[in-house]
Design brief:
By secondary structure, the protein is mostly beta strands. The chain is 14% helix and 40% strand. The protein is built from 3 helices and 11 strands. The termini are far apart. 31% of the residues are buried. The N terminus is likely disordered.
């Protein structure tokens, strides 16, 4: 594993590509027609994601430069996720169901984006409808599973995301997001397990720079 490097603009963009991507440059590839077997696998993946509910595990992220970072992952569908990066990264990414916030305690920065404009919205939605809003561009068979590549059919978010699954048992094991230049950020999930009773506070992230101002004394 490569060591930690200071966060640069490229690294920050890679973070947003992998976990909370801003709209990406559109990819020019023409979608491959899906077979009935492709659609069956895609529908199976959608049903699995809808039934995931709460889950926790670890993630390993590799950006286009090969920089590797990792941390703890918490999911609470619909809409909520938390990526808590291990030190010394100083990064925390939280989706509260409406927005995705990115806090960097090292750089003392805080950014927020609509969840609908990020790849997270693809598998955190309450209903995952492959015939509405999501365009499946291809389904790829892997040695021990399959991968589903999709893009936003409404074009609110350009670019593509590929979700990878094992087949037996069916489980999400990671995803990748690619830009128009072919550079990709990969996220690999480790020991993702269903759980229950996650603390709601995990999915709340407020801007630490905003100070509460009390009432003026009379």
């Amino acid at each position: 594993m490569t060591g930690y490097r200071p966060m640069t603009r490229t690294t920050r963009r890679a973070l947003m590509l992998g976990l909370a991507a801003l709209p990406l440059p559109a990819l020019a590839a023409t979608p491959t027609p899906l077979t009935a077997q492709d659609r069956a696998l895609a529908n199976r993946a959608a049903a699995y994601l809808e039934g995931l509910g709460e889950a926790r595990g670890r993630f390993v992220q590799t950006d286009p430069r090969g920089v590797v970072s990792q941390g703890a992952l918490y999911l609470k569908r619909p809409g909520k996720a938390r990526f808590d990066y291990d030190p010394p990264a100083g990064l925390l990414v939280v989706s509260d169901g409406g927005a995705v916030a990115i806090q960097n305690s090292r750089l003392k920065t805080f950014e927020s984006y609509p969840l609908a404009a990020t790849p997270l919205s693809l598998f955190l939605a309450r209903r995952i409808r492959l015939d509405q809003g999501v365009a499946i561009t291809r389904v790829t068979r892997l040695a021990n599973g399959f991968a589903v590549t999709a893009r936003d059919g409404r074009k609110q978010t350009e670019g593509e995301i590929t979700l990878s699954f094992t087949d037996a048992p069916l489980q999400l094991i990671g995803w990748s997001v690619s830009d128009a230049q072919g550079q990709s950020t990969r996220v690999r999930l480790i020991n993702l397990q269903r759980t229950s009773g996650l603390d709601p506070a995990l999915f709340v992230l407020k801007d630490p720079r905003v100070k509460n101002v009390g009432r003026a004394k009379m």
